[in-house]
Structure formats: C-alpha cells, structure tokens
Write a structure and sequence with these properties.
The complex is a heterodimer of chains A (about 160) and B (about 425). Chain A has 7 helices and 5 strands. Chain A is of the alpha+beta class and about 160 residues long. A 5-stranded mixed β-sheet of chain A has the order 2-3-1-4-5, covered by helices on one side. Chain B is α/β, with parallel strands linked by helices and about 425 residues long. Chain B has a 4-stranded parallel β-sheet, sandwiched between helices. Chain B has a 4-stranded mixed β-sheet with strand order 6-5-8-7, with helices on one face. The radius of gyration of chain B is 22 Å and the shape is globular. The chains are: A alpha+beta (about 160), B alpha/beta (about 425). The interface between A and B is large, with 43 and 55 residues.
Chain lengths: ~160, ~425
C-alpha cells in the first residue's frame, strides 16, 4: 500500500506547509481517501508512517470525525440536513422520501456502490431549508419533485 | 437604505476576484498599512472601533490581539475560524464566496498587527466549494505578490494556508480547533494558557472568526470612529445577521449592531410566512436561550441580549411560528448537541444523551410525570461543569424552552400528544 508518484509529491507538498508533520493529518487523509477510496486499517497504518505517528493516532482521528470515509461510499453521497431550520421547514418528509426512493436507511450504501444516504446535522445553509449536500454541492428549497429531478440527473 | 460594507459585494459579479475587489478600492488599505502604520496603531484603531468577536463570543478583537506577547521568541500564528457550524448561522459562507479578498486583506492586516507570518484558515469540511474558492484565490494572490515573501513589495512575509476540517461542530471552539489543526481529535483544552500565550504548535496564536477579520480593512480605511458609530455602545459597526425558519425572506442581512430584532424579522426578512404569528425566536444560534414574542423588541447587540438572559452569539436568528411544537424543537436542538458532544467531559457527554432520550419519549407520548423537572435538573448539572462552552450551549436551550413553554411540555407528558394546531 503506497501512494502513486503524483500523490506522494502532493503529500510532501502538504506536509511542508505545516510546522509539524502531524498537522497534515486531515489533508493527508483526504488525499488518501481520494487515492484509495476509503481509509482501511492498512491505509491508517500507511498514513501513520507518512506522518511519524502510531496508527492508533490516525484511527483516533478517523473515529472522531465524520466526513472521511472509513468504509466504501457510493458514487453519489447524499447528506441531507435534519437541523432545526430544516426541521421547521418540513425536512422529515423529504428525508423519508429520499430514503424510500434510494431504498436505503440512515448511513447505508447501496450494494452497487452507487448511493450512500446520510441524514446529517446542520450544514449551515438554513436560508435554503430544507436542504442537502450531494457530493460537493448544496441543493436547497427541496421538494419531492426536486428530489425526483436530482435523482434523474445523478444516476 | 443603511450602509453596507461586506454585503455590497454579494450582488457584484465576480466580486471574489482580485480584479473586481481592487476595482472597488480593495488592497489599498494594506498597502498603506505596510508603509505607514505600526502594529500598535492598528491594534489601537481596532480596539477603538469596538469590533467584537463575531464568531459568537463577542470578545473585543483589539484587546485579544494585544495579548500576544511581544518578547516571545516563538513564531506567532493567526488562525481564521471558518468552521461555521452553529445551527442557524450561514454568514461566513457568504463572506468567503463574495468577499474573498476582503477577508484576505483583513487577514493580512491582523497578521501584521500581531507579527504572524503564517495564517491558517480552518474551514468546515462540508464547505468544499468554498475551500476550492479560497485555494484558487490564495494562488492568485501569491502570483501577484500579495502573499508570500515581502508582500506588496514590503519587508513583511505572509503565508496563508487553507485547512479543511472533517465534520465536527466542536472544532469551532477555538482550542478544539487548534487541536484539530495539529492533527488530533478535536478535544477542547483547559484554559489558561489562552491561545494568545500558547495556541497552535505551542506558540502565541490569535483565533478570529471570518466575519470579524472581514471588517478590519474598513475600520483601518475609514477610521475607528466611523465604524464604531455605525453600531451601539461598546458594540461597533455592522453585523451579518443570518435569519431562517418561518420567515418570508430568509437570508443574510448586514445591519447595524443594536438594531431591534423585531425590525430584522418584519422589515428585512419580510415577516412571517402565511401570515402566522410568532411563537418563539432564537436570536443567536441554536445555543442561545429562546425569546418569546414579547421579548423581540430587544436590541441585537451583545450587551442588550445578555441583559435579558439570552445572547447575541453568532447572530443566527431562527423564527418559529405559532404552529411550532416546542418539545419537538428542543428535541432537534438537543439531538444536535448530543451528536456533537466530543465526549471529553462527563456532564456534557452523558447529560446531552440523557436529555435527548427524555425528550424523545415525551414526543412519543411516553413521557413520565417527573420528566420535565428532570430535564431542568440535567441542564443545571451540565452548566459550568465542562471544559468548553458546548455543555452550556446544550443546557441553555433546555432551561429556557422549559421555563418559557412549561405548560406545553407538561401537556405533552400528561396527554401523550401535542396541543399545537397542525402537529
């Protein structure tokens, strides 16, 4: 298990930005996620080696934060907000609808690795409630019809 | 039409680019600062402007900067808190998207004032597009010589690095943020030492919110008094209010510090949808004690809200109309704090989970007669007993919702259902 040459160069560049190697933990984990798909125990070990920390310190970070994938995720990752402003604007119905459409319960990934469904806490876009994040982008003012359209575009 | 500083860039096309920013007078101030100002003069000007910490704590920004020890041989760091996560708050996203270089200019001035040659922007992990924007615009600034060695042809060096978080509300707390920046899990540190003495990498560090720094160029450009006079006593300038919930026009509004809450809701956010009445308002992010309709004439500044037992916090306003079930609202808020409790301190780790469970069973019609008092007792046992303010942030809503809407909670427990129409 090792980065390809380009990723290794990128990794060295990241580490050089910080006064201490370990500070590059999150950016290097993001890079490893991009390269290997998710952070397996082997990847944790490798990242630990790159940053001169024991693997357990990488594992500790992996279990603390929610965004970096510890297991394979779908090509389309739906993170739908269940925060207070979204709740006031009826997100429960939208969350149930999306869950039903995808055939997935909370935190599940489809067998074909196409979809992952995660209800999440506030995504800081309450002005567009109810809203969600699909991969990099935010989608707001969600309705069932809008969910249908988004699913059509992303399949 | 009241004055706008940051939000006037929201509607300008490509306002995030150097070219457009400079067309509107951008980067003139830092050029002058590097030639004519001493760091002490800047700190004094920012202090006199009554600029408060707009992440939510409201600490006077100039005073914070003055805590950096002058004789320390260690490097100094500026860390910009862009981990915007307090539910109901979304203003910093607008600053990053539309006033990118205004933020950078504020970072440059602050770095010069505290003697930092390295600054880190810690941005929440979900803001992927905003991270891309920052990275791209930082590269553009390096190319122009506005960042790096000898910025703007001066002898002052400054590197600016974007550090993306990974989904943890707690990392918005400044010492948890520093732990996270150092590559660890985000567990808040005991204070003292305060970050200004020992922050990132054991070195003197100032942590400032995005919005706070974005106001700095204007303060230096137009003078402390002109900024201070825009706001109220001891609360200088304007503020970006985020407003959401049951209002007609949710969004970010840049208005004076100290403006009445009622005016923001009815004149700027268009009042309530469907002509409904107000049941309750959160004035400053979900952790701030809730207000009832007869309290919304309060002035939106740190001191006025503290005086009525709430807080201005992040100025994230959430309006709830009279169809809102307060038990459900508190449940959603408490579920959030339970989910985000970092687990370090027992009262917060256990208390938030316990409160969430109690609220869930009340909602499910299985509440017990002692539950309402239990909720208050749980909150009382969290407050003041944790290392960081997350514990208080979870407990304050519980105390205030139960105190102000006690009958509704008791009805739920007694009847096993909600007495609010439409629920």
């Amino acid at each position: 298990m090792e980065f390809c040459k380009a990723a290794k160069t990128e990794c060295d560049k990241i580490i050089a930005k910080y006064p201490e190697k370990r500070a590059a933990m999150l950016p290097v984990l993001y890079l490893a996620e991009k390269e290997f798909g998710h952070i397996s125990p082997e990847v944790e070990k490798y990242v630990g080696k790159l940053l001169d920390v024991p693997p357990v310190k990488v594992h500790e970070v992996m279990t603390f934060y929610t965004l970096i994938a510890a297991k394979p995720r779908g090509k389309y990752h739906f993170q739908i907000c269940r925060g207070l402003s979204c709740d006031l604007k009826g997100c429960v119905k939208i969350i149930d609808y999306l869950s039903e459409k995808l055939g997935l319960s909370s935190d599940e990934t489809s067998d074909d690795l196409m979809y992952t469904f995660t209800p999440v806490e506030c995504l800081a876009a309450c002005e567009t409630a109810p809203m969600m994040q699909l991969n990099e982008d935010y989608y707001g003012n969600l309705t069932k019809e809008k969910i249908d359209d988004i699913l059509k575009e992303n399949s | 039409m009241s004055e706008k500083i940051i939000s006037k860039f929201f509607d300008i096309e490509d306002s995030h680019t150097i070219e457009i920013y400079e067309k509107h007078g951008g980067y003139e101030t830092i050029r002058k600062v590097l030639k004519q100002w001493t760091p002490e003069q800047i700190i004094e000007e920012v202090s006199n402007a009554n600029l408060r910490g707009l992440g939510g704590a409201g600490f006077p920004a100039g005073r914070k900067w003055s805590f950096i020890p002058k004789d320390s041989p260690k490097p100094k760091y500026l860390v910009i808190n862009a981990d915007e996560s307090e539910p109901g708050t979304f203003k910093d996203r607008y600053v990053i998207d539309h006033y990118t270089h205004g933020l950078f200019e504020g970072i440059m001035i602050a770095s010069y004032a505290i003697g930092a040659h390295k600054a880190f922007i810690y941005i929440r992990g979900e803001y992927i597009r905003q991270t891309e924007r920052l990275v791209e615009q930082i590269e553009a600034a390096y190319e122009k010589g506005y960042l790096g060695k000898g910025i703007f042809g001066s002898k002052f060096d400054l590197d600016l690095i974007v550090h993306r978080g990974a989904g943890a509300y707690i990392c918005g707390e400044e010492t948890a943020l520093l732990e996270s920046l150092e590559g660890k899990k985000g567990w808040p540190r005991m204070k003292p030492p305060f970050p200004a003495i020992e922050g990132a990498f054991h070195s003197p560090t100032i942590v400032n919110n995005v919005e706070t720094l974005a106001y700095v160029p204007t303060i230096i450009k137009n003078g402390a008094d002109s900024f201070a006079n825009l706001g109220s006593e001891r609360n200088g300038g304007l503020r970006l209010y985020s407003i959401s919930g049951h209002v007609k026009n949710p969004g970010v509004y840049e208005l004076p510090m100290g403006i009445p809450l009622r005016e923001i809701i009815y004149e700027h956010a268009g009042g309530l949808e469907n002509g409904n009445g107000i049941k309750a308002v959160i004035p400053g992010g979900s952790s701030s004690p809730i207000l009832t309709p007869n309290e919304i004439d309060v002035n939106m500044d740190f001191d006025s809200l503290a005086a009525i037992g709430s807080m201005l916090g992040s100025a994230g306003i959430i309006v709830m109309d009279d169809s809102t079930c307060m038990v459900r609202a508190l449940y959603v808020v408490t579920r959030f704090y339970h989910h985000e409790s970092c687990g370090q301190c027992t009262p917060c780790r256990e208390g938030t989970g316990w409160a969430e469970k109690v609220l869930k069973r009340i909602l499910d019609g299985a509440g017990r007669p002692e539950d309402v008092d239990n909720l208050v007792e749980i909150a009382d046992n969290i407050i003041g007993n944790t290392i960081c303010p997350l514990g208080d942030a979870a407990a304050l809503p519980i105390q205030s919702y139960v105190k102000k809407f006690r009958e509704e909670f008791e009805y739920h427990v007694r009847e096993g259902k909600c007495d609010v129409k439409g629920q």
